[in-house]
Please model this.
Amino acid sequence: MIRPLAGSFATVIPAISQWQIGPVHVPVHGLFVGLGVLAAVLVFVHEARRRGAVNEQSLVAVTGALVGGAIGMRLSGLTRHLDFSANPTVSQAWEYGSKSILGGLFGAYVGVLIAKRLGGYRGKTGDLFAPAVALGMAIGRIGCLLTEAPGRPTTLPWGIHAPASTPECPGCVAGLAMHPSFLYEIGFQLAAFAVLMWLRPRITHPGELFVIYVAAYAVFRFFVEFVRANETVWLDLTRPQWVLLPSLALLGFRVWRGYCRGYYRISSADREGDHVPAAR
Model:
């Protein structure tokens, strides 16, 4: 799948939009997104069982996350351009979808809130989602690595090449080596998953595991945007970066407040079976 170029440390990653299995055409991006969602659900269920939180309400929260995430990914194209007249209509955005991860995360968050409100559930579920989302994102990004423009041009030895047929990738047409930005994110998400699994019995204040993950990912995503292939729109910043800027301010305040209140003091609960209250 990935082979070295002769006389170079750079590698080439073929852009494959579909795999053909017999008469069936399988979309590569959709396949890995589906595998990521499946992995996230399995981790969520495992965590819910460990915390004694497997019930109808937690299943409602998962349903809300799945539905909200799907809607968020499809409709995130509504804010693609600063000039709103250039953005697609709701029907066009739904039909073609921008497949935005940030849109999917926001939609999943709103979906959980709505599902819990409709179901009258006041329990906290976010800490169940944190490691699940991290692992799901790591798997889903493999689809992005195989189908999308990898990043901006680089002279670093680990730069990668992608075929000229890769959509919206001028650097691919020019044969330039580019940052493997999706590999960076896969590495971050796997590391986040490991850290969150280590922290889960140690940070026992409800909701804080989720806050830590979201804050860490927001910081990472803001900086990795400097090497991704996304278009800059103003002051050399991309659309995701402009979306993240106010989010970073809010998350920074939230983490600071949690620190001042002692939410991040590591407890001595090191045993896998220790009961930890379910968290939002």
